[in-house]
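Replying to the earlier thread about multi-chain prediction with a worked example.

Input:
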Amino acid sequence: MRFDLDSYREIADSLTRNKSRSFLTGFGIFWGLFMLLFLIGGGKGVKSMLSANFEGFASNAAIMVSQNTSLPYKGMQEGRYWNLRLGDVERLRTLIPELDVVSPQLSRWGVNAVYGDLSSSCSMKGVRADYSKVEAPSLKYGRYINEVDVEQERKVCVIGKRIYEELFPDGGDPCGQYIAVGGVYFRIVGVDYNASNISINGNSSQSAVVPISVAQKLYNYGDVVELICVTAKSGVQMTSLEGRIRQVLARNHMFDPEDEPALLVLNTEQIFNLVDALFRGVNFLIWLIGLGTLLAGAIGVSNIMMVTVRERTTEIGIRRAIGATPREILSQIMMESVTLTLVAGSAGIVFSVAMLSLLGMITGRADSFQIDFSTAVLAALMLTLLGIAAGMAPASRAMNIKPVDAMRDE
Amino acid sequence: MLIELKDINKTYEGAQPLHVLKGVNLGVEQGEFVSIMGASGSGKSTLLNIIGILDNYDSGEYRFDGSLIKGLSESKAAEYRNRKIGFIFQSFNLIAFKTAVENVELPLFYQGVPRRRRHELAMEYLEKLGLRDWSHHYPNELSGGQKQRVAIARALITHPQLILADEPTGALDSKTSAEVMALLREINRNEGMTMIIVTHDPKVNAQTDRSIHISDGMIV
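Result:
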């Protein structure tokens, strides 16, 4: 089969001869591809928006809080309140070596941070240095609380983004300045810009983080801690440690190890798994819907080509009579099918990229919605295959038209 | 001998098998102007289809220009039709969405002749047949005689050894019929092309050199 300008003109001619039919057929492909790519991009964007909420938070961590017991145990009535204590930290670390970080935390809500005549409402968090391994700070200035701060009970603090912006509206490095938090002066040693929404005991942008030893003394906590955060060593599943944690704490504080409500364990692994599973499901649906729509479009092309071939029986017969080989007829129908699919599909790719750009502009997250270049190339490749597949049945029917059929149709 | 048929048999299979050709023997020399006459259903169209390699036969032997035509592959048969045989049909069989000149070009397209050369040749042939001014008209803008002349140009453009015409004047009035027949006669005389015309019109029959009568699947 030779290919010159006329071969292409012939394809263009036969596709434009019935414009509205070609358009409607192509629209199925166009819409299918648009749906697939737009949904992929959209899913990607929503996922990245959602995971921004967990940014910086250890994915294999658990947070423990004491609550009233719900079962009577060893002669003690239900409804008893108990407290986590500093001793529990060492005990957990010793008895469960699979734990990586065991870090206690205290907090004080509704205090004010004051600098000069500016003030900002905040919560004070007392932590140890290793808390940074649970919730990674993204420090704009300075450093985080360290072990010496805790040891020597230094009055230093790391302030969140919002506090920094309200107290230092002119910007600049605030480290070394003193602010009053809850009436006590602290020296600022760092500014934390972490924007994650999963933070414990209040959003980190509105927290003033101080050494836990200082907070204990200031508010007379003794050795009581509000919560204990733990992370598991790599390769160990937090979920598998939960039972042992319960047992260690239950023995020490005399509550029933089976008493689930007595100890609230918030396992981030479960949350992450939930989100992951959710998006796996969403992705599956996206591909199902997108590919389904695309497939329906391809079947439409195949169907219409079938009708076209039947309509063109005489024409194809004439071509065969004056010397077209079956292969030439086959490739002509195939090319028509591939051309129609490719043109309509490319329009779908362009349209979906444009719509995703628009979506990115509206949400202000240009990168997270847009599909990759490789995805687009893959889609184009898939289109070619789809075009060939769609042309297969009609082309083979066209190939089997005998020249005498043309004359019989008169 | 350009065409040599020996004891050709053809049966259309079906619920009621139809024995259309019953041992046809026929020879046509190079440059002859022959008509095949016969009533409808006599098998003359089938015979034409076999000679034109549009259809197969069951038994016997058909030689075209010395080579045996039997069990050819589709693409080999297409090549024969393309290069050695020109067809003229009763209903013209022009492609409706192509202009006159594009229709004439088509056999050359399948031969792989370059585009520009194809167009030149097609225009040349249209001019010969007095259709130069009509070259960019579509078939439905042409009269019956004009359409048939376009079809003749399409048949001639590949310089075939044989022209097969199936009722070439069947759809034309008597005046145009006469013109078309004169044209075919002239081509036969000037170019020495062998011409076989299937017809049931005695007037057409009278203008040919030899007439072959077929009746009930046999040459009489």
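Residues 268-311 of chain A form the longest helix (44 residues).

Feel free to reuse this layout for your own posts.
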